[in-house]
Write a structure and sequence with these properties.
Radius of gyration: 29 Å
Number of domains: 1
Strand content: under 5%
Largest sheet: none
Number of helices: 3
Shape: rod-shaped
Helix content: over 70%
Number of strands: 0
Order of helices and strands: HHH
Structural class: mainly alpha
Length: 126
């Protein structure tokens, strides 16, 4: 039997989720850097045009690889920052919805009590 959504939402410790969001973003940055480093390491074995043993040619090739890696890292950091911001906004929106849900539940309970009292008075006066 599937669990109702309200049970699942209540089971999530939202304060812990909010507190751990920066750590999750940092872990994602590290993961992306590792993947990006693997990609550039695989392409590092390609021969350098011209004389492959010339130190200047190797230095130029390495400088180009460093510049490319730096660019990728900057783009990844921007992407992860945007994702972390969106995640924080999503968590905030869910917290606001939870609060609104509690308010609506309280209002529904109060309306039910008032309706029951009105029904009891109407039946009692007849």
């Amino acid at each position: 039997m599937p669990l109702p959504w309200s049970t699942l939402v209540k089971a999530i410790p939202w304060s812990d989720v909010i507190a751990k969001a920066p750590d999750i973003a940092q872990g994602a940055r590290k993961l992306w850097q590792q993947v990006s480093t693997r990609d550039t390491t695989d392409s590092a074995g390609t021969p350098v045009p011209g004389n492959p043993s010339a130190p200047e040619a190797r230095l130029t090739a390495l400088a180009a690889q460093v510049a490319e890696m730096s660019s990728r890292q900057q783009e990844s950091a921007e992407l992860l920052s945007a994702l972390a911001t969106q995640n924080a906004e999503l968590v905030g929106a869910v917290a606001a919805l939870r609060q609104r849900n509690r308010l609506l539940a309280a209002a529904t309970g109060l309306a039910s009590v008032v309706a029951l009292a009105a029904l009891t008075l109407a039946l009692g006066s007849s």
